[in-house]
Design goal:
The structure is a homodimer of 222-residue chains. By secondary structure, chain A is of the alpha/beta class. Helix content of chain A is 44%, strand content 13%. Chain B binds a DNA duplex (15 and 15 nucleotides) through helix 2, helix 4, helix 7 and helix 10.
Chain lengths: 222, 222
DNA sequence: ACTTCCGATCCTTGA
DNA sequence: TCAAGGATCGGAAGT
């Protein structure tokens, strides 16, 4: 699950070098299918020209089959500019291949501009699977700095469902402080001008919601 | 499902035109989340610059969450050259975003060079899902769309000064509900792990401050 | 998204 | 037992 294996043939590329520069630890092995084994991903790396070649000679889908059967999370990583195609290639060929890989073989289709980009992506994929995000996604950006007036309270109250800056102002005027707003019952809330029964209920619900489960770090599998 | 729905906002782009030129039939609708609904895929289209912007202002997560919860097969389609990034952006940011979208939100990450490429890819995705390969492909089971319970409360509480997502989580765990957090005294707040005297005072101050409209005296500063 | 920086909190030590 | 010091965590801001 936390493994990072690089196929020995990748010594031809600068990927292993870049990975080391990025401080990633990995093993090199002869791999039966794919080029990188990063956590649950099994990834086949293809430069855009190699990909074009594989499409034309029909070998692409064999390889797709291989990695699709070898992993729960098969992926292809297309490296290079998507416009660098052989002139004689049909313009639908590349999109068609990407679509087929995704629809029929369930592959994730990553893309990177160059070998360094590839290394960075691999490193991040690994890091994310090992450490998660390392932090929680920032909720509530743009917090006001400590202003002496009620801006702080207004911002706080405007976090309630259905409450924007204007409604927050009304609520604060009616109740006197943020603490009082948050202590109010549904009925009391509804007394405030601008607050109807629906909003009142929504507010009370949010306030009384119990923290049975929390997302610490989001974990999803495909 | 063989539907092909395009969000009405896409009229700004040339995608619908290209699609018609490619002989694809589709409907245009106002979509709640995403830009294209192609078979089982729900796809959000982002130009590389828009994507960069969304990363910087943190808006990307919300959108990812939206389409991830609205579909079994959520996807993002990155349009443009992956090297066209704001040069003030950290080089690890874009790969990190792609990785996170894939690992944590289970999104497929497509890529296309331009609007025509996007249209071609969409067309092929549709065609493949309609006409298939003669057999059904086992579509992978996607994410446990665990709607985080208490997210609303966490958002609300993280509006307090010195309180981010993590502290909010701790506070809610300690007090049981947002209402209880907002009712707590300085001393009670300080009981919570991670909350010291400074933070406790800051929180209480924010809660009890009243709009200064009526206050004559000013806060003394050193 | 990532990184850097800073302040607050918590933990350990040693008197 | 408590105070001072240093390690750690989390938040805020900038790229």
């Amino acid at each position: 699950m936390t493994s990072f294996i690089v196929d020995s043939r990748e010594t031809n590329s600068r990927i292993p070098v870049h990975l080391r520069e990025l401080g990633v630890e990995f093993e090199m092995q002869e791999m039966a299918a794919g080029d990188f084994h990063v956590g649950e991903f099994l990834i086949e790396r293809k430069s855009i020209t190699d990909l074009a070649k594989s499409i034309l000679d029909g070998r692409l889908f064999e390889q797709a089959e291989l990695i699709a059967q070898a992993s729960e999370r098969p992926a292809i990583l297309i490296e290079g500019n998507l416009l660098d195609l052989p002139n004689d290639m049909h313009p639908d060929a590349m999109p068609g291949a990407i679509s087929a890989l995704s629809v029929f073989w369930g592959l994730s289709v990553f893309s990177s501009p160059n070998q360094l980009g590839t290394a960075r992506l691999l490193a991040r994929l690994h890091h994310h699977q090992v450490n998660g995000l390392g932090y929680e996604v920032a909720t509530r950006v743009l917090k006001p700095k400590d202003k002496p007036d009620g801006a702080q309270a207004q911002y706080l109250v405007s976090g309630l469902p259905g409450v924007g800056p204007e409604m927050a102002r009304k609520l604060l005027g009616h109740f006197g402080s943020a603490r009082a707003v948050f202590a109010a019952s549904i009925h009391e809330l509804a007394q405030c001008n601008g607050v109807g029964p629906k909003t009142a209920v929504a507010i009370a619900t949010a306030l009384d919601q119990s923290p049975t489960k929390f997302r610490v770090t989001k974990k999803a599998t495909i």
